[in-house]
Write a structure and sequence with these properties.
Residues 1-23 are annotated as: Disordered. Residues 49-264 form the ER-bound oxygenase mpaB/mpaB'/Rubber oxygenase catalytic domain. Pfam families: MPAB_Lcp_cat. It is a single chain. Mean pLDDT is 83; it is low at 1-29. The protein is built from 17 helices and 2 strands. The relative contact order is 0.18. Strands 1-2 form a two-stranded antiparallel ribbon. The protein has one domain (7-296). It has helices at residues 7-17, 40-46, 55-62, 66-75, 82-98, 101-115, 128-150, 155-164, 167-170, 183-196, 201-211, 219-222, 224-235, 238-243, 250-266, 272-275, 277-296; strands at 119-120, 123-124.
């Protein structure tokens, strides 16, 4: 993805917003900062299950950040909790965009409690720079899905989506002023990180486990894994695909073209009720999770 911004600007953008675990963190409110823009466009996007095709792309880009990779590697069994992680990611997206104040306080309160435990000498899940990077990967993933299957977005559409996607960072305690002020500034930040972040062995291990889950999955998910894997490795920035050793070969590229063509042909004919079935399920999961949190103080069933 090209930008008209120079590397010098990219470097300045990144270094002025980057924070580190030993630095003093901003005083955040109980559960989140207010959004930069109301997520009106995001609500229509999140309601369509096709955007879940970008979930694995998002996670693999997040693991490019060494602090995110280390925290996930040391504190979460990603590969062995594949289904649960995707389910909770769906819940997070839905509560950030569609949740009531009560739901946000409950869900994000638990998220922040868990994050406070994920830390070490050179990483902390409370680092707002990691929340900024998380929001950035979600924004780019949405664009990948949107433009692959529905055509090029206009500049105005991208600008609107860019501002709205800040909510994924502010929901995780990223101060609003850390979000790039313009779309060009964002692409400078993105391009710089993609070019310079150090891909660790921990990240490679996590990526392999996500692309090739080591445990049996329910049939409802097992058939989708090869499809999601194919589109993910064909969407990854070239450097990340190379560093993760998942560059798409000719067979993968051909399969990707076939998948995209098939989805474009079939999706318009899918009944509207089916296009958002998983999203509605995620909203129900949010309501159940809030009830569990009220009762036990935990998100999960145990």
């Amino acid at each position: 993805m090209s930008t008209s911004t120079t590397t010098t600007t990219a470097t300045r953008t990144t270094t002025t917003t980057m924070t580190f675990p030993h630095e003093k963190k901003p005083n955040a409110p109980d559960y989140m900062y207010p959004p930069i823009a109301e997520p009106l466009l995001l609500r229509s996007i999140i309601s369509q299950d096709i955007y879940l095709l970008g979930a694995l792309f998002t996670i693999l880009c997040q693991f490019a950040h060494p602090a995110l990779a280390k925290g996930s590697y040391k504190h979460s069994q990603f590969a062995y909790r594949f289904q649960q992680r995707l389910q909770k990611t769906g819940c997070f997206l839905n509560v950030a965009v569609n949740g009531t104040d009560e739901e946000k306080r409950a869900i994000f309160g638990v998220v922040h409690k868990y994050h406070s435990r994920v830390k070490g000498d050179d990483y902390s899940a409370d680092d707002p720079e990691l929340h900024k990077w998380t929001a950035a990967t979600l924004f780019v993933a949405i664009i990948r899905v949107r433009e692959t299957f529905f055509g090029k977005m206009t500049r105005n559409e991208r600008e609107k989506l860019f501002r709205e996607c800040a909510i994924f960072g502010t929901s995780l305690r990223m101060p609003p002023e850390m979000w790039p002020s313009t779309l060009d500034e964002f692409w400078a930040y993105w391009d710089y990180n993609i070019a310079t972040l150090i891909i660790t062995d921990e990240a490679r291990s996590l990526v392999h486990g996500m692309l090739y889950p080591p445990m049996a999955l329910p049939m409802s998910m097992a058939w989708a894994v090869p499809v999601v894997r194919t589109v993910t490795i064909n969407w990854l920035p070239e450097r990340l695909a190379r560093e993760y050793n998942v560059q798409p070969g000719l067979a993968s590229q051909a399969a990707y073209v076939g998948i995209v063509s098939w989805v474009k042909a079939v999706y318009p004919w899918v009944p509207a009720g089916l296009k958002g079935q998983l999203s509605r399920g995620n909203l129900e999961d949010v309501r159940k999770a809030v009830a569990r949190i009220k009762e036990t103080g935990h998100w999960g069933t145990k």
